[in-house]
Amino acid sequence: MTPSEKLVFNQTVEALFVRALENRLTPACREHLRRAGLELDQKLERAYTLEQWKEFLRIAAGHVYGGVPAEAAYYSLGERFMDAYFGTFFGRALLGVVRLAGPRRMLLRAGMGFRAGNNFSVVEIVERSPTSVELRMNDVLADLPTFSAGLLARAVELCGGWRVVSIPEEFDGTAATFHIRWSEAPAEAALSATDDDPGASRPRA
User: Fold this and answer.
1) pLDDT tens by residue, 48-106
2) Residues 6 or more apart whose Cβ sits within 8 Å of residue 173
3) What is the pLDDT of residues 57-70, one digit of tens each?
4) Where do the domains of the chain lie, and which CATH numbers do they carry?
5) pLDDT tens, residue by residue, 131-190
6) Phi first, then psi: what are they for 179, rounded to 5°?
7) Are the C-beta atoms of residues 156 and 182 closer than 8 Å to each other?
């Protein structure tokens, strides 16, 4: 690894592959991941290259979501990643804060969140209304932008957003712009959400 190399930190890998997908990884999938450089039976490396991370996602999409269109598989992986992240000790504490802040403020701070998980993400936000933004990512972290679309949509939901739409556009193979909009949650839904399990509100692929 070189100082300029794009790296994904181990907490990102842990959230998806140890927490979110732990019970869905078959022995064949684990072996495929091992050959790609991810030893789940051993202590994780401090960081993995972006290309390694992308290969891990390809393997998970193929094994866990076999037969599902790639765009949908990546979207679901993004959702599962966000659920798992907010299921960690640190994530649960953070979730309480961002729920109070709401979707808009959470998205305005999204760059800090991404940089906690890698060394290269740059996020630019343009507010279009109190409940819609354009979010530009310099790298969507995967072969398809729907991975980031899924994690962004789920983050907005967990912060109290309702009927969330997250649409990637202008994808050039690396960067993309996400058009994100949501409705304010009804008061009774917002109250009940504080007691929900982060992974319980959306059916999975």
Assistant:
1) 999 999 999 999 999 999 999 999 999 999 999 999 988 777 677 777 777 788 999 99
2) none
3) 999 999 999 999 99
4) 7-73 (no CATH), 84-193 (3.30.1360)
5) 999 999 999 999 999 999 999 999 999 999 999 999 999 999 999 999 999 998 776 554
6) -95, 110
7) yes
Radius of gyration of the chain (CA): 16
d(CA 196, CA 157): 12
Q: CA-to-CA distance for 105 and 159, rounded, in angstroms?
A: 10
Report how far residue 104's alpha carbon sits from residue 110's, in angstroms, rounded to the nearest whole number: 10
> For residues 115 and 121, is the Cβ–Cβ distance under 8 A?
yes
**What's the whole-model pTM score?**
0.87
User: What per-residue string of b and e applies to 29-63 under the rule 16 or more CB within 10 Å gives b?
Assistant: bbebbeebebebeeebbebbbbebbbbbbbbbbeb
Following DSSP, what letter does each residue of the chain receive, concatenated?
--TTS-EEEHHHHIIIIIIISGGG--HHHHHHHHHHT--TTSPPPSEEEHHHHHHHHHHHHHHHTTTS-HHHHHHHHHHHHHHHHTTSHHHHHHHHHHHHH-HHHHHHTHHHHHHTTBS---EEEEEEETTEEEEEES--SSSSTHHHHHHHHHHHHHTTEEEEEEEEES--SS-EEEEEEEEEPPHHHHHHHTTS-TTSSS---
Tokens 């949501």 appear where?
182
